[in-house]
Design goal:
Elements: E1 8-13, H1 17-27, E2 32-37, H2 40-49, E3 53-59, H3 67-76, E4 84-89, H4 95-103, E5 108-111, H5 116-176, H6 179-182, H7 185-212, E6 222-225, H8 226-236, E7 243-247, E8 253-256, H9 258-274, E9 281-289, E10 296-303, H10 332-342, E11 347-352, E12 356-364
Parallel strand pairs: 1-2, 1-3, 3-4, 4-5, 7-9
Antiparallel strand pairs: 6-8, 9-10, 10-12, 11-12
Helix pairs in contact: 2-3, 5-7, 9-10
């Protein structure tokens, strides 16, 4: 992971050279780089030339262009609009001028003669904020990089699966049309179930391919009866005889993307079965209106498996991460989290080692 820079570049702007030197001397500290401009025009040029400026100490009263105008121009330019500005002035201390400074985009206001301790303390605060912003930016870039890798992985897997699956569907179709199969009601029913499952899987793979190819069209939404969706899903999953799925509560009808919601439940149910250590696997599904967000519904999928250690309850949602003793690729729960967060929801888990886990997620009602 790329380490965020701990350095900050501070642009000092004043039309008096002695003030620039005095301010630089006052603010000297490790990991600080200073740029100096003696006019508003020079300050604008420097701000556009250096894209790593984290703070501007801007004198209000200057000859060619006052500090208010400089700040206004900086805030209207996309390249410089996010730079923090502290106004420094020997006059215009009245409230109306201070408010004008904030209106033009200042984040703070200092009056001359400067108090050394207060000036240093305020600059220290903005330096820390700048470093935190850099760390967040690097973390977001790293997350985007991981998501790109995941999308490429998903594309390769989906692409490689689609061709043999289409072949299998063709062969199964031929078998289902055989007169010997048609004469056996049970076999005929089983063939229909298998064909429906493989066709459904093909649809999911096509959806993954579309997703990774960055289809710009909005994903289609439809009215979805969640309980009916789950009943169809459990049929298509060919659950082992020792697996019991039951519903704790009545489930809602939503206007949503059916396939994505189905993927979320499929990941959680498959995860509950795969990692279960009990002779009889019990999966409870339920939900309720979200108490925090009325436009979301809060679902849960609970299992009676081995549970998750408290130290792993956040880690298991990260790409390629697994809890202690976990098996598998470490991708399923990350995809689950990504699908939920994609439409504004949140995921979390409550677990008791040895007793089981309950995975929660919020899903938009429309």
């Amino acid at each position: 992971m790329t380490e965020p820079s701990k350095k900050i570049t501070i642009l000092l702007v004043d039309d008096k050279q002695e003030n620039l030197l005095s301010l630089e001397d006052m603010l000297q500290a490790p990991d600080r780089i200073f740029l100096k401009a003696s006019s508003g025009n020079e300050a604008l040029k420097m701000a556009l030339k250096h894209n790593d400026i984290g703070l501007i100490m801007l004198d209000v009263q200057m000859g060619d262009m006052d500090g208010y105008e400089v700040a206004r121009l900086l805030k209207t330019n996309p390249r410089t609009k996010d730079i923090s500005i502290i106004f420094v002035t020997a006059i215009n201390k009245e409230e109306q001028y201070v408010l004008k400074g904030f209106k033009e985009g200042a984040v703070d206001y200092l009056s001359k003669p400067l108090d050394v301790d207060i000036t240093r303390a305020k600059v220290n605060v903005f330096e820390k904020l700048y470093c935190y912003q850099n760390e967040l930016k690097v973390a977001l870039q790293e997350k985007e990089k991981i998501n790109k890798q995941l999308e490429r992985f998903m594309y390769v897997v989906a692409h490689d699966l689609k061709s043999p699956l289409n072949g299998a569907i063709g062969l199964l179709t031929l078998i289902s049309e055989d007169e010997r199969i048609k004469k056996e009601p049970d076999l005929n029913e089983y063939m229909d179930i298998v064909l429906n499952a493989t066709n459904h899987l093909t649809g999911m793979i096509t959806s993954v391919l579309d997703y990774t190819l960055k289809n710009d069209e909005a994903a289609p939404k439809e009215i979805v009866d969640v309980q009916q969706l789950l009943q169809q899903l459990t049929l298509l999953l060919f659950l082992p005889k020792n697996v019991q799925v039951q519903y704790d509560t009545a489930l809602p009808t939503l206007f949503t993307n059916k396939l994505k919601l189905q993927q979320v439940f499929q990941n959680l149910i498959a995860n509950a079965i795969k990692h279960n250590d009990k002779e009889k696997v019990v999966i409870n599904i339920g939900g309720q209106d979200s108490s925090a967000r009325e436009d979301f519904y809060e679902f849960y999928v609970e299992d009676n498996g081995p549970g998750i250690a408290s130290r792993d309850t956040d880690r298991i949602f990260k790409l390629f991460e697994k809890g202690d003793g976990g098996t598998g690729s470490g991708i399923g729960l990350n995809i689950f989290k990504m699908l939920v967060e994609e439409q504004g929801g949140k995921v979390w888990v409550d677990s008791k080692p040895g007793e089981g886990s309950r995975f929660y997620f919020q899903w938009s009602r429309n």
